[in-house]
Design a protein that fits this description.
The protein is an alpha/beta fold and about 325 residues long. The chain contains 12 helices and 13 strands. A 7-stranded parallel sheet has the order 8-7-6-9-10-11-12, sandwiched between helices. Helix 1 packs parallel to helix 12 and helix 5 crosses helix 7.
Amino acid sequence: MPKVLYSDHNYPDIALERELLGAAGVELVVGDCRTEDDVIEAGRDCAAILLQYAPITERVVAALPRLGLVSRMGAGFDTVDTDACARHGVWVANSPDYGVGEVATHALAFALALLRNIVAYDRDVRSGRWHYLSSGPLARVSEMTLGIVGLGRIGKRMAHVSRNLVKRVVACDPYIIDGDFPAYVERRTLERVFAESDVVSLHVPLTAETRGMVDAKLLAGAKRGLVLVNTSRGAVVDVEAALAALDAGTVGGLGLDVLPVEPIPAGSPLLAHPRVVLSPHAAFFSVEAERELRSKAARNVVTWLATGRPDYVVGVGTRRPPAR
């Protein structure tokens, strides 16, 4: 019976994974791995690792010669050293399309909450202020331009659900050809997206190229009053630069579901700022999306054990599943 390490998770229970993997004849080893040493110790003799946030590094894969597959609970895989996995022949898989609609509608909700001052109105009413001008003037959303950075599955869905609310949709994605841009989305450079847009929504993975991409220089060229929404990865935005632009009036509002450090540290200036709306890395979530996420990540393991190739390949490996 092959062993699979479930390295870490924050779910109330893992009955779903136990059922799927158990039906495939897998022995599930459940850990609480936070460090490389934790993963190495718990992963000995395991053919695959199912993970949420645990680090999969060069040191980890080098220490686990029987490891053939790493399957991430989520679309992103920035805690997995994919180059190291490739060097050691370890397959890498993910769950790329489980919450596309949820993330897009969450991003749109952030944008509308800031553009229509919903959170500020609620705060004013609760404090005894009852006037439509209590939180300042509002501009007409249907005259605005929405900018999208990253036009993959979620970026395209964001464009689709928003296109009838705004005047224009522009986007930047240097990895997509013109023919893959929807007809109602205009291609722009990153700098032009920020210069032209009233709202910018980020939908990019965290890579060496995107880390810190939204910095002081980019924000300095933004359209004044820009609302910036991030439901992608926290480290894509230089939060200090964004707060400085917010205080300077260059940025009109921040909607952040993800942060460079999670949970948000007590005392963070984001917590007290009236033009910041936050959620706890929840954009992906619905009951249905979570079930899909977990099922697909577990089924990567089941499929690899049966066929030698997972369903959702991020990195191609050479190691074969153990004989059964």
